[in-house]
Specification:
With about 100 residues, this protein is an all-alpha fold. The chain folds into 2 domains: about 5-35, no CATH class; about 45-105, no CATH class. Helix content is about 40%, strand content about 0%. The protein contains 4 helices and no strands. The chain is elongated, with a radius of gyration of 18 Å. One of its GO terms (cellular component) is mitochondrion. InterPro entries: Aminotrans_3, PyrdxlP-dep_Trfase, PyrdxlP-dep_Trfase_major.
Length: about 100
């Protein structure tokens, strides 16, 4: 944190795509991927702790449903019902018409 070379990363918030330094992918690989669990070769940064958790829940439910379906293409009914807060088989959190809701069909 006290390294002046990191100041632009703290100020510009490159995780949000705002003025990332040229070496941002390398910095992520050195810092985050260097301690990633075995088999994990990618990382996605988020803006805050809440959206990080919500993104993790979404990823978990998407993985679960894709595994259950045997493919990754939701039906038209799944797509139309998930954004209007209709009951699904697995729901965790939902907010009417919100992009950050976790209601996976």
């Amino acid at each position: 944190m006290s390294n002046p070379n990191n100041m632009s990363a703290f100020v510009n918030r490159p995780a949000l795509g705002i003025m990332p330094p040229e070496n941002f992918p390398e910095k992520l690989a050195e810092s985050l991927l260097s301690v990633a669990p075995s088999g994990m070769s990618r990382v996605q940064t988020m803006a805050c702790g809440s959206c990080s958790n919500e993104n993790a829940y979404k990823a978990m439910f998407i993985w679960y449903r894709n595994k259950e379906r045997g493919h990754n293409i939701p039906s038209d009914e799944d797509v139309s019902s998930c954004m209007i807060n209709q009951v699904g088989e697995i729901s965790f959190i939902s907010r009417m018409y919100r992009i950050h809701m976790v209601h996976i069909v």
